[in-house]
What we know:
Helix content is 26%, strand content 23%. By secondary structure, the chain is an alpha+beta fold.
Amino acid sequence: MSACLRIAPNVIGDGTHNINELISEKKNNKSKRNPKYRVDSDYILRTELLDVNGISREYVPAEGERIWLAGVANISAGGESIQLLDRLDTEVIQVAERAASAFPGIYYVGVDIIVPDDSSETAGSPYVIEVNSNSATSTPVFPDFGKPIDLPRLLLEYLFSASGPARTIQHAEKGQYCPELHPIRLAAPWNYPFYTPRFRNRQNALISLAAYKYDLKPYNISTSISNIVYGDKHVLFHQSTPDVVPQVARRVCLNRVLRNKRLNEAGINTSLTSSTHDPGKVPSRLRKFRALTIGGQVVAALERGIEPIRNYESNNIETHQQRFGEFFRDVSEILHADFASIATQSVEALFNPLIAGVDIVAEDISRPLPSQYWMVSQITCSPSLDWHYFPTYGVGRDVASALLLQLFPKLEQTKIQLQHWRIRVKGKVQGIGYRKWVQRSAFSKGIVGKVLNRPDKSVEIWAQGSHTALAALLDQCPYGPHEKPSFDIDLEPLPITEYQGFRVDHSSSAAHSGTSLKE
């Protein structure tokens, strides 16, 4: 652990040199005594406070006069660092540790803290302004003032220790990247089109939906970050990316040059190549595909393309984007093992991210590799799950559940017991959009059933799902669309039945418990 105080860029006058000369002299002196600045050609990058205060760069400060150059203390902008871990107040250290622990799965993190001046009458507790998962390593090693701390050594010792994260990531212990694994293990079918509007472009919502399916409670930190807890283990997700995906894999996937270099070294084509065709006769009919890999196996595959939009009518000048739309066709069942192997080998070459989308350009993904042109065009560690749930053509795939099963293998042995509840909501509940709110809430939790108005002005909800999903819905029912609890709730268990989705029943009568429950 290290702790640095950052000081904004400044120069101190000597009564002889102007500000420009002081900046140059300060940079040269630092470069001589601190290796960090030998590769930094622009030591002080920001001087906006000179303009704000009307100070010319030709101004000669008096001896001992400090001139502040910028309002930020970033080291990259010319700030200075003072190593003071041994002098830091215990409260500040505790605040930093609590902030870091709020982001499970991040093992090396920089916490920026503002510490109020103790001499001020309004001094308060330290507070966090930023948490950075890519904090600079060189600053503690080469501080401007104070004792250096060998942070890289401490980090490596932790990562390779018996209790380090490399030993505790459950999926890594299974050896899912072993060569003997079959390259294809398709995710279970998913064919619920009524969910589509709620989950387009919402990857963490699909992760939460899968969690409710397995009776797990998701904790949504934001619209893009969620945390799934199973027993004493938890996984933090950003969109579709779990925290166990190595940062090096994310970086290399984003860097086209490095990505292609790694793939080419592994024998993977990154330009159109065929072993049996004339290089000068690349076919005009090439198609784009996406293979989704989880745990070193392909769980779903899509063809991506552009087609005319159905029933398109316009009297205006038509653009390509207006007349054509992107489509996704599930091709999981016809995926050739050659292409599945290419996808898994590509992922392995890029440091084995647990989940990855491999984009392939080929003539026909159902045919062997040697008979056609093909290439891997891109790989992402944050693939779009909704493409596979809601393809334009073909069956959808429950890929989020496949991801949770890989992260928590014991789930596969757990039999989830469905429950069916009738929930009566009493109060001024009709005419406020309550039924539509219930439908939206039910969709987000994988609950099936119906909601209807009763003649006595109450609302009745017939809900079937996992216990965790139903309990989460029940907790929200007293509130509905409101911020405060406004309604009374009665609960009655019912036998398990069959539903197709969750619908709003516009009839004003409700069936009694003796009536058939089949929808």
